Amino acid sequence: MRDEQLGNIAQVAARSAQPYRRHIVGLSLQRSLFGLTAQAATTIGLPGLSSELDFPARLDENGDLFLDRSQVAALTKALLSWFTPETLELMHTRHAAACDALVDATENAARAAASLDGAPRKLSEDLANRMALVLAYGILSKFVPDVLLRALADAGDVEPPPFPETSAGAELMQNTFALYQACCALNYDPRRLQLEWPRVPAEVFQLVSEFCHRQTGFGPLAWDSPGYEDPNYVIRLLHSAFNEVDAEQVRRRLSFARRPSVARSSAGGSTKIAALRRVLGFWLDFLERETWYARRAFYFGMIPLLQQLVAGYRQKIPKFQPADLLFLDIRELVAGIADPAVIDARRHRYMENTEYLSLHGVDSSRLATMLGSS
């Protein structure tokens, strides 16, 4: 029996030594935010997360995410014995507040940067801390929804999971199809858009640009990987999704997004079941929006602040480029530290990681484009 137990421990250790996901982010600035997630998680108020050492995830210098399965198991056990209507309401309130606070911090940073008002370093620090907290929830989302489903089953609930009435992904696809239809109405199908962009009529250019602005935030977690903020990305998506398709058939297929919401559970009118379903419903919606929160915060909030900081760095380092800021970590950025040799070393390592660059579609001009310096 002891040998079997040791074997199980060895299997768990081996699984924990393997990355949960490889190369999820590569830029120094973004990786440094993951370094703040363990500390941020201690403010969430969940059992078993009272110290940074309790957090079950870490990101290594290669941008690989590791999950400690034994920590996940311990947190799962603690949560199952902790759930009550009162603690579930607290869980929901703090989760929703973290998301709302990041949206508010993003808008505050954008306003301050546009008016050249406020301290960009302090605003960057506040925004980074808000992003780290939402990233911590994102990591917890790898297993917490499953724990909530298990708790519902244990409580006798047999209803379908409380998925949102319209998922974020379905709504995004509907909006993308609407863009496709609007462009086609102006005689710009996806193929023609690909061939002529950006040399298109002003009306078409405005349609695509405004769509990209509204949908910024959707896309991969890695900031340097193109997403919906990039017109070329969107046009490629239009081509792959809708080129030479039956528009009426697509419209019918997308009608599933307007399905009625899932009925509430009627299992004995249990207050705990109602609370579990409310919290799970929020997590299920968050699963589709977690990347949106952080990516949108970077593009709408962080980038304008970074652009404000460039002039100050150039006074110290005349050859300093805006994209160099992406190779500082958040503590260096807040402190105003920039060592050209360190930046060059980090940039060299990043550019040498061809596997990462290929995976995320990063070309030679991508970093300059992100900072608006192309």
Description:
The protein has 374 residues and is mainly alpha-helical. It folds into two domains: 2-164 and 263-370, no CATH class; 168-258, no CATH class. Helices cover 64% and strands 2% of the residues. Strands 1-2 form a two-stranded antiparallel ribbon. The protein is globular, with a radius of gyration of 23 Å. It starts with a helix and ends with a helix. 33% of the residues are buried. The model is unreliable at 1-15 and 257-268 (pLDDT under 50).
Question: What's the helix and strand layout?
Answer:
Blueprint (H helix, E strand, L loop, with lengths): L1 H16 L10 H7 L2 H5 L15 E3 L5 E3 L1 H14 L2 H31 L4 H21 L3 H11 L13 H18 L4 H7 L5 H14 L15 H12 L4 H8 L16 H46 L13 H6 L4 H13 L1 H7 L5 H5 L4
Antiparallel strand pairs: 1-2
Structurally, the number of domains stands at 2
| Main sheet characteristics | 2 strands, antiparallel
- Structural class computed from helices and strand pairing: mainly alpha
Report strand %. under 5%
Give the overall silhouette. globular
Order of helix and strand elements from N to C terminus:
HHHEEHHHHHHHHHHHHHH
Q: How far apart, in Å, are the first and last alpha carbons?
A: 64 Å
Report the mean per-residue pLDDT as an integer: 89
Q: Give the number of DSSP strands.
A: 2
- Tell me the helix content: 55-70%
Total helical segments: 17
Rg, nearest Å: 23 Å
| Unreliable parts | 1-15, 257-268
- Main-sheet strand order equals 1-2
